Amino acid sequence: MWRGRAGALPAAIGALCRALSPGSRPAPETFRLAKFDRPEASLQIWRLLYSLLKHIHDGGWTEPNTIGTQIRFVKSVLWYHGYGRPEFYQLPSDGSQGSRELLLAFSWLLNRISLLERLLTVNRVKIGDEASVCTCEDNNSNSWKNRTKIALKPCLKREVDVRYLQWLTGRLRFQWRSLHVDHEEQCKLLHKIHSYTSGCHMDQTIGHFSVTETDLIRQPDSYKQLLQLLESETSRLQAFLEWKRLEPVYWHWMETVLDTLDKDANTFKSEDVCKEKNTLPNTNLCCHSASNIIGEIDKLTKDLVTLRDGLHELVTCKKSAWYEKVKSRERTLPDETEFCAAVRTITEAVKLKLSDLKYHCAHKKNGMHGLYRLVFKDKHSAGKTGFLSSVSKEPITNVVNATEVISELKMEEATLKRELKQLQEECRHKLDEIAEGLVGVICIPPMKR
User: Fold this and answer.
1) Are 112 and 86 in contact (CB under 8 A)?
2) Which of these, 100, 316, 373, 434, could form a disulfide with 37 (CB 3.0-4.6 Å)?
3) How far apart are the first and last CA of the chain?
């Protein structure tokens, strides 16, 4: 069994490398070097991770493309996805070591976020005009608390100016508005193309040309480049199918990587223990007489008695301090009327939340997620302004009216605005409580826009 798996391992790693993007394919030998933590493989895997994550999270990364910025980008993205191995975030920023840790991070991405599937989706050749729609529930909000402990700990050592944060907020708001304007302009151009080419497509369910098809009509010579892209995508899909067949071999090999990691860790521990033993003083090795042993026993007995008395005093002090704390807490408890009023307020808030939850569950539909092809339908051909068809094997059966998606997104927007207003009120009350404790300080609220 092991010989068969060992023979299939090069094929599995080769299929994995071929399934990646052409500009970021590492040599299969890099994986073998990374298993034994060879430093010459570190830079290659750092660049591999940067290139792959850049394809998925291309959010306008405009800093200089140095190895330090690439490593910082990879660490931030892995922290975003919830990778919690501290040894990875402790790797040096020059990329000189840590190839085995990088191999573990790469394999974690393969399994956790379906890295290959997402890369194939991002790099897919798009013939039709598509739009990304997501009405799913956000289940990732609870994992932010654990991520903060890992990656933001070095950032807490330095103070950040509030004015710099305000400047970043303004810059983000400006970029968001610019993106919104560009998206509106793109929608207008798409509408022109779809309306002008209506009735020209061979597929009557679509009825119009896409941007790519219109460009092929205008520039027929560009079909060669499109054909090359389709051939490259076909080869990656074939490699992906081979990878899925040989994937268990790769994960079995990763188990041996973890075993090697444990062996090296145990070796380092044993070497440290041997060094400690060798550095112990040997002045008492010749003291084997009974009198010396009895003296040492008496000394140890006195030390134990002293420690017992100290612990007893410490426990007594802790108990008295705890009793005083409990008594002071009992004195600060509210009376019955205040307690009942607080209970009524909490009960009303819970009832309101439950009513919203019941309404949401009663009107909840299956959340849409993924890419949908934009298909324009005028009022004469269909009684709708347009619809979205899912990019799947059966696109006609999964048709969504665009107006329904817009209305659902507006309802979600109203819910988020209510939650934002509630959080702002809570923050305002907390700030008022803090301001009351400040003596001689005048707090001036910001100007309203």
Assistant:
1) no
2) 100
3) 71
